[in-house]
Specification:
heterodimer; A: mainly alpha; MetI-like fold; 24 helices; 2 strands; 1% strand; globular; B: alpha/beta; Rossmann fold; five-stranded antiparallel β-sheet; 6 helices; 10 strands; 25% strand; binds adenosine-5'-triphosphate; binds magnesium ion; nucleotide-binding (chain B); ABC_transporter-like_CS (chain B)
Amino acid sequence: MKRKLIGRSIRKEFNGWWAISLIGATVILLPILFVFSSLFFKPNENWFHIREYLLGTYVKETLILVISTGALTAILGVTLAWLVTMYDFPLKRFFRWALILPLAIPPYIAAYTYRSMLSYTGVIQATLRNEFGYQMNPEWLNISSLRGAVFIFTLFLYPYVFLITRSFLEHQSASFFENARLLGRKPFFIFLKVVLPLSRPAVVGGVVLVIYEVLSDYGVTSYFGIHTITTAIFQTWFGMYDVNTAMRLAAWLMLIVVGMFIIERLLRSRQRYHLPAKSRPLAAMKLKGMGAAAAFIYCTLVFLAGFFIPFVQLIAWAVLTFDKVWNDTFFTLVYQTLYVALISTLIIIVVAVIVANVCRKQTAVSYFLAKWITTGYSVPGAIIAIGVLAIFIGLDQWLAPIYEMMGMADAPLILSLSIVMLITGYVIRFMATGYNAIEVGFEKVGTKYTEASRMLGSGVTKTFFKVDLPMIKGAIFSGFILTFVEICKELPLALLLRPFNFETLSTKTYQFAKDERIHEASVSSLIIIAISALSIVVLQMVNKKVKE
Amino acid sequence: MKIVDVQDLVFSFSSEGEPVINGVSITIMKDEIVGVLGPSGSGKSTMLRLIAGLEMPWQGSIYIAEKPVVADKLFVQPENRGVGMVFQDYALFPHMTVGENILFGLSRLPRKERKPRVAEMLELVKMGEFAERYPHELSGGQQQRIALARALAPKPNVLLMDEPFSNLDADLKAEIREDLRVILKKANITCMIVTHDRADVEAICDRSIEMGQREKIG
Ligand SMILES: Nc1ncnc2c1ncn2[C@@H]1O[C@H](COP(=O)(O)OP(=O)(O)OP(=O)(O)O)[C@@H](O)[C@H]1O
Ligand SMILES: [Mg+2]
C-alpha cells in the first residue's frame, strides 16, 4: 500500500524539472560538503603549526570583529530607523532613503578611501597642518586596526539593520505606540520597552546579514592587516598553496557560522517578523527645538561619514586620475566584469526559476530543496571559494588521463585555470539572491493560473512558458538586477577563483589599493558604486509595488 | 455511460490526522448535472481537485468516461484527463485577451477549427463582441461567462464548478443561474456543481449529493 502510493506520487510529481533541480542542488552543496570532509583527512604540518600558534588569534579577532560590529550596527540601525519613522524633523524624508546609501559603497572601497583620507598626506591631516598649523599625533587617526575595521563595517553595513527595522516599524499599527503615549509614557521609555522588544526579530535578521558580510570579508581585513579566519584561508592558499589546510580553516569558520545560526534562532525565539496586513499608519510626532536639532545632526553626521564624504573624495581622486586610467585596458576590465557577471547571473536565474517552479507545491522534499539551493548565501565566500578550488583541482587530477589522450599532457590544469571555476563560485554563492526574488514572484501569483492551464490540457512545460513565465517577468527582472549587482561587487571569490591575469573591477580596485595607488582605484570604485546604487533603486521600486 | 466513477476514495492533506475524504464513492451518468452540497470544510473543493487530478488520493480509484485515471499504480496527469474546471475566482489569464484565453485550451484541435470554435463559444455565452478585451476590463458576471466558455471549449467529458456564484451579488445570481442552466443543457455537458445554496441545486441540477457530515469541533 505504502509502496504503491510512493510509486504513484513519483509518477505525479517527477519530471525533467525535478531532475534538473536535483542536479543543480547537488552541484551547489558539493563544495560545502567537501570542505567538511577535510576534517577527516590526515592534517599536515602546516595545520599543526597554525593550530598551535595562530588559530587562537584568528578565532579571537574574528569574534571581536563580529560581536562589536553586530552590536554597533544594531544600535545605529535601530536608532536611525526609530527616528525616521516616529518623528518629524528637518530633511527627514530625505534621510529616510539617503541613509540606505552607504550600502552602495563596498566596505573594502570605504576602507582604502578612509585610510588614505586619514593618512599623513591625506586631506584631514594636511588641512590641519597647513591651515591651522596643528600637528596631530598620527596614532589617533590610525585606522589600520581592529577598531578601524569595526568603524568601517559599522558605518557601511548598518543599512541592513536600518532597512529591515524601518520597514518593520512602518508596518506596525499606530495603536501600539499611541496607547503607550496616551498612558503618559516618555518617548524614550516607549523606545526601550515597546519598540525594542517588538522589533527584535527584525533587528536580529538585519544583524545576521551584517555578520555574514563581516565573516565573508577579505578586502577590509587584509588591507588593515587583521588576522581573521577568512584572511588566514587566503594566506594559506596564496602563500603555501596548501588546499587541505585552507579547507580545515574553512571548516572552522563554518562552525562559527553554524553557531551564529543557532544564536539567531534562540534570539528570535520562534518569533517571525511577519508584517501585519493593513493597519493605520503611524502619524509621526513633530520634534521641536533641541530635539529636532539633535535628530537632524545625528542623521547628517551618519550620512556624511557613511556616504557623502568618501563619495566626494572618490570623485575628487577620479578627476585627478581620469585621463590616466580611462583607456583600453580599463574598458577590457569593465567588459570582463560585466561579461562574467552576466553569464553567472543567467545561469543563476535559469536554475532558480526551475527550482522555484518545482518547489511551489509545498512538500517536505521541496522544503529541503529550497533550503538546500540557497545555502550558499549563509556560507562565507572564502569557504565556497576554497571548496570550489579543491573540487576543481581534484577534477583536473581525475581528468588528467583524458587530457593526455587529447594531447594536452603539458597542461595538467585546465578546469582550475579557466573562467568556469569563477562562474561556478558565483553561482553557488549568489543562487539565493536570485532564488528568493523569484520565489516571491511565484508566491504572489499563486497556483491557480497554473492549475487552470493544466485543466485546459497543457503540460508542465507548456504551462511554464505560456502562463507562469509571463506572470513572473517582474520578479525575474528584479532577481536578475540584484544578483548581477552582487556579483559585480564581489571580491573574495573573484580574488581566489579567477584565472591567472584575469581581472574584474573589484579585483583591480583592490590591487590598486594594495599597491598604494589609491587615486587610480577611484574610477573603478565609482563604477562599482554606481552599479550598487542601481540595485538599491530596484529594491525601492519593488518595495513600493509590494505596498500597493 | 458512467462519466465519473469514484470508488472508496481516501485523501488527507497530511499523514497525521483524520482524512478529509474518507471512503467516498460517487457515480455520475452522462449529461447529468449534479449538485454537491455539504457544510463548510466537508471536502467539496477537495473532491473536485481529486477528480481533476490536482491532488492525489491515498486510496481508491477514479474512472473518467470509463477509463481509469487513478487506480493501483496509475496516475493520469490533469492535462490528460479530459476534465474541465471553472475556478471560484475564474483564474482567467490576465496577460491574454478573452479570445486568447478560450483559444488556450484548443491546442489539440486541428488549426483550422480553432478560430470557429472560439467564436462558437463566445456566441454560446452571448459575449460575441468581447473577444479583444482583457479580463480586467470585464465585470464579474462577464468574467464568469468567459471562464465557462474557456472550460467548455475543449469539449471535456465533465465540467467541474466550484461555487460558481460566490463572487456575484444576489441580483445577478438569479439571472445567471437561469442562463447557466440553458448554456449547460445546450452544450450537452456532464457537470458537477459545488454550492452552499439549495436553491442553486433546485434551479440548475438534476439531482444532488451530500458530502460527509463531519462533526465540527468546538
Ligand atoms: N491545502 C490544504 N492544506 C491542508 N488542509 C487543507 C487544505 N485545503 C483544505 N484543507 C482542509 O481540508 C478540509 C476540506 O477542505 P475543502 O476546501 O475541501 O472544504 P469545502 O467543503 O470546499 O469547504 P467550503 O464550503 O468552505 O469551501 C478542511 O478542513 C480544510 O481545512
Ligand atoms: Mg470549497
